[in-house]
Amino acid sequence: xxxxxxxxxxxxxxxxxxxxxxxxxGSRPAKSSKNSSLRKRRQRKKMLWAGAAFLFILCALYGVxxxxxxxxxxxxxxxxxxxxxxxxxxxxxxxxxxILTDTFSFFSKKNIFLYPRTQxxxxxxEQFPRILSVRVERESLLAQAIxxxxxxxxxxxxxxxxxxxxxxxxxxxxxADEGASSPSVSARYTFHGALANADTPIGQTFxxxxxxxxxxxxxxLEKGGFFPQHILMEDGKDFTIQVARGYSIRASxxxxxxxxxxxxxxxxxxDALRGKEGELEYVDLRFGNRVYYKFKGQAExxx
Length: 303
Hints:
The chain folds into two domains: 71-152, membrane protein fhac (Ubiquitin-like (UB roll), Roll); 157-302, 3-Layer(aba) Sandwich (Rossmann fold), CATH 3.40.50. The chain is built from five helices and 13 strands.
């Protein structure tokens, strides 16, 4: 067989015509090395600036802390105005114990610009239930004295349980022991019942949802010359009002106040009751158009 045109691979050295590729894995381009060094320098500068800023803030806060404790910028006097039954000395002591104590705080509570005015007003109302509203103020920008002006609740009536009685205001809020009030405080009406048993009723509200309706009814009865005296809540809706004329009115909170007064006037002007109020024991208006009444010593009747 002819060998012309045949390439004998056995005579060639392996790789004789192949180019060798060289990879330098352990080195980086020079440009990348320069960028890395530049980034490190920038990071060091940022850290230095951050440290300097943090130190500046600490120094500034310490300076403000020292400034708030300067005597010239601290409250030095407390005046109380508007008290009647509440002791002004008691209010002053409470204020001083709140803001003029030596208890450490980073910013001084005595500072004339930073004292907790809103918190102080709320704490006075909480500490003294007889106080209705409080206003704490300073006379001028750099004044070191604060004035606490209070408005006390006025007694609308009393709420009694057994032999203990407590004063309540026109919204039914019970705010003081009647025995701890001066004799000059008078209450027109006496209420009974409708309060949960507690160590003290002070701070509770008598009929919180319907007291305004009861007050309207009492006002209408007084205007009509009936002069209510005692109000007894029998359950969640029914009550009995004893009037100065010597009998009682039984009514329900489900009825409108003006309807109760109107029905009462109608029944008293009827032939069965006209001129006989002195003999009445009670008039029961709880059943809409049906009215029941009872004379003393007799059975109940329907009108």
